[in-house]
């Protein structure tokens, strides 16, 4: 598993120097569909690298830092090798076709990951460096995106990392990806500079997403470990806000909140993501695990974790295409979610279940290779081959690997 992961990460490694003199080194998700640096993919790549070659993990994160703008913002995608391909110029969230970076975000996991990489590297100076980067990123998100309770908002579903998630079908309707109306949604946001405050003021689409806010809490937990005073308190306030606003005590599940404050009641894996939060109250964690994750009708399929519960009418376990476009996150298993769930299972004492998920994940990779996503029923691999984030299996295996030190990391 480690050898295969190392091969994929090495093949996808890109490094160089821009004409302006910025040096970079990052792992592209795959060499054809996604040659650029994707924010949350990079966070996962860094964790996988940290089990294989920690200096590459540090370079990967430093490239995200190098892509940070003076406002503190770091975009969803950074184009180190020159402007985006023409074919993507109309669908990516750019203000100008020649932009260095998109104007939208992805789940802000940087603090969480930087802390882990710094600890594994045993490098206090690297932790210091990361603290400054993450402080600036968080200050930006607070300024540009936070509500009074501190939770942050999104402008488009692709900001969650879960591009065509069925959670957003209802509020978006004809504007949901990849309907032509999605371009109208993008245009609405583009003419407002993708400025969240302006879009909200002009009654545009926006939401308080459960995965993005889980990442936000994790980012603050990471900032605590990077030594930021007050970050622990902030992480705990945000966890309370997340529960107050997005947890439904009736069903025992987390749901995203739509533009009018309504609960978007589709069960997707995002509702399980809070399991990774270090200070999630155990009663909530147990409910998520016992009533939802372990339900063989919805999430506990042969190859967990399906991106959408199998009980949802929108669930499609196989590849879903509209014309040439893939419609993502409507059923297949991506390994982004595996990491969140495995950490939660270990933390709440379900070691056997964590081992089961990891064993099934290893089976997926052995059967189909490092594909982008998998059919949760048959295990068939789909989408990109040699997909970077699927190397996170190395991290998941390592988390189970026993040894007091590894257990402490997930405690
Ligand atoms: C797809 C996924 C997104 C990911 C990107 C690159 O757009 O939905 O989460 O970051 O591919 O892998």
How does this model look, in words?
With 411 residues, this protein is mainly α. Helix content is 45%, strand content 7%. The protein contains 16 helices and twelve strands. A two-stranded antiparallel sheet has the order 1-2. It has a two-stranded antiparallel sheet with strand order 3-4. A two-stranded antiparallel sheet has the order 5-6. Strand 11 (373-374) and strand 12 (381-382) form a beta hairpin. The radius of gyration is 19 Å and the shape is globular. The site of alpha-D-glucopyranose has 8 residues, from helix 2.
Write the layout of secondary structure elements.
Layout: H1 2-11, E1 13-17, E2 23-27, E3 37-38, H2 39-50, H3 54-66, E4 77-78, H4 86-89, H5 110-121, H6 124-145, H7 169-172, H8 181-190, H9 196-201, H10 210-225, H11 231-246, E5 247-248, E6 253-254, E7 256-257, E8 263-264, H12 282-293, E9 321-322, E10 325-326, H13 335-347, H14 351-368, E11 373-374, E12 381-382, H15 392-400, H16 404-410
Helix pairs in contact: 2-3, 2-5, 2-15, 3-5, 5-6, 5-10, 10-11, 13-14, 13-15, 14-15
The protein binds alpha-D-glucopyranose.
What is the gist of this entry?
The chain has 411 residues and is mainly α.
Amino-to-carboxy terminus distance: 24 Å
Shape: globular
Class by alpha and beta content? mainly alpha
Biggest β-sheet: count, sense, barrel?
2 strands, antiparallel
Bound molecules: alpha-D-glucopyranose
Number of helices: 16
Q: What Rg, in angstroms, do the CA atoms define?
A: 19 Å
What's the total number of strands? 12
Strand order of the largest sheet: 1-2
Stretches where pLDDT falls below 50 for ≥5 residues? 403-411
The string of secondary-structure elements, in order, is: HEEEHHEHHHHHHHHEEEEHEEHHEEHH
Task: Please indicate the percent range of residues in DSSP E strands (runs of 2 or more).
Answer: 5-15%
Helix content: 40-55%
Could you tell me the mean pLDDT?
A: 95
């Amino acid at each position: 598993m480690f050898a295969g992961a190392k091969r994929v990460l090495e093949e996808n490694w890109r490094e160089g120097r821009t004409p302006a003199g910025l040096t970079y080194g990052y792992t592209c998700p795959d060499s054809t569909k996604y040659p650029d640096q994707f924010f949350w993919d990079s966070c996962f790549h860094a964790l996988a690298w940290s089990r294989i070659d920690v200096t590459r993990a540090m370079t990967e994160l430093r490239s995200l830092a190098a892509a940070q703008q003076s406002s503190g913002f770091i975009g969803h995608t950074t184009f180190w090798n020159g402007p985006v391909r023409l074919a993507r110029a109309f669908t990516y969230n750019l203000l100008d076709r020649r932009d260095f970076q998109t104007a939208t975000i992805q789940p802000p996991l940087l603090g969480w990951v930087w802390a882990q990489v710094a600890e594994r590297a045993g490098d206090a100076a690297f932790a210091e460096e990361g603290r400054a980067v993450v402080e600036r990123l968080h200050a930006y998100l607070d300024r540009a995106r936070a509500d009074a309770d501190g939770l942050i908002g999104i402008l488009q579903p692709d900001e969650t990392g879960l591009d065509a998630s069925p959670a957003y079908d209802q509020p978006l309707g004809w504007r949901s990806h990849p309907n032509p109306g999605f371009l109208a949604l993008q245009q609405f946001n583009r003419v407002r500079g993708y400025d969240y405050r302006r879009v909200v003021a002009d009654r545009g689409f926006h939401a308080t997403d459960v995965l993005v806010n889980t990442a936000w809490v994790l980012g603050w937990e990471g900032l605590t470990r990077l030594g930021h005073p007050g970050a622990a308190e902030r992480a705990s306030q945000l966890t309370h806000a997340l529960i107050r606003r997005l947890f439904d005590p009736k069903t025992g599940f987390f749901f995203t909140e739509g533009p009018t404050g309504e609960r978007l009641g589709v069960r997707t894996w995002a509702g399980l993501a809070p399991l990774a939060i270090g200070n999630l109250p155990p009663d909530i964690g147990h409910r998520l695990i016992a009533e939802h994750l372990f339900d063989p009708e919805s999430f506990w399929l042969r190859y967990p974790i399906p991106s959408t519960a199998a009980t949802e009418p929108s669930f499609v376990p196989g590849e879903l295409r509209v014309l040439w476009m893939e419609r993502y996150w409507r059923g297949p298993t991506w390994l982004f979610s595996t990491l969140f769930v495995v950490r939660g299972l270990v933390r709440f004492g379900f070691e056997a279940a964590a081992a089961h998920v990891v064993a099934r994940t290893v089976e997926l990779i052995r059967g189909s290779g490092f594909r982008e996503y998998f059919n949760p029923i048959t295990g068939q691999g789909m989408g990109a081959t040699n997909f970077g984030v699927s190397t996170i299996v190395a991290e998941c295996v390592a988390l189970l690997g026993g040894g007091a030190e590894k257990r402490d990391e997930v405690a």
